[in-house]
Amino acid sequence: MSSLGEAITTARRALGITQEELAEAAGVTQAALSRYENDLREPESEVLVRLASALGVTVTFLKGASSIRGAMAVDAHMRKRATAKATTWRQLEARLNMYRMHVRHLMEEVSLRAEQRIPTFDPIDTDPADAARMLRMQWRMPIGPVRSLVRWVEAAGCIVLAEDFATSRVDGLSQWVDDYPVMMINATTPVDRLRLTAAHELGHLCLHATELTLSMEEEATRFAAEFLMPEEVIRPQLRNLTLGRLHDLKREWGTSMQAIIERAYDLQTISSAKRTNLYKSLSNRGWRTREPLSDELPPEVPTLAQSISEAMANKGLSREEIAEMAGFSDPERNTLFVSHTRRLRAV
Known about the structure:
The chain is an alpha+beta fold and 347 residues long. The chain contains 16 helices and four strands. The protein has a four-stranded mixed β-sheet, sandwiched between helices.
């Protein structure tokens, strides 16, 4: 069971502020705040009100967060590079956990009827590629490239949030909260990398909802490769690869040239020497760090959270009511369920 102290700590980390800064904003001593966060003392009612206000959430949200098993301070699935700073991914992980709890808080009041669902598989019994194939079949996806990947994921009830992570070292995070999956993706990454990240995190949601394995990252990567580039369809296209051919395949499949090279190597349609030569060609042109054509790919823009907010607004709920239902202290702090229009329309 999570604690009130964990909820306060997670909310503070999500904002990227120190104990000293939160203590000053809430009008308490740092020593007192440390005791609250470590569950050595429970804050008085009026102190909890000030803490919640400083954190931009409601008291009900903090108390609810502390009463949910595994809801706060839970490790998120994360696609990051080895050099990512621990402080950076801890803050992002805290933000994801806060979003998860805000989603859960709102869903206690609002029912979300998704067209599909994200199924879960046992990673011990199910090969990642098989899981990707089964998911595509369950969602009745067309054969070939995945168009509008984020839209498919959101149609299955997953809240996707594209944000500037202020670092290039973390690409994405994901986690379940009850029946509601939440995914964060780095909006500053090129579309081809963003798509691979979204598919990678989708793999985590499918394969690692309850079972964690030592090869989770490899499994999510294999899932993403099969989901975005099904072997049965793409294999014949991966022979005799050239830079020109890689350009054409990137346009068609919406994945990076490097991902296509890796797919060809994994499927053994190119040799290790050919793989090395292709990477050398990319490096000579400066394409290992920034590939061409990425700006020409259709953007992947999440819309589900905004659509939920607009549906609530069109039913007569005010910005203040929506914020409170989601656990935010006021509309200005509500960065999740934001409506950009108040025009009436059918929902």
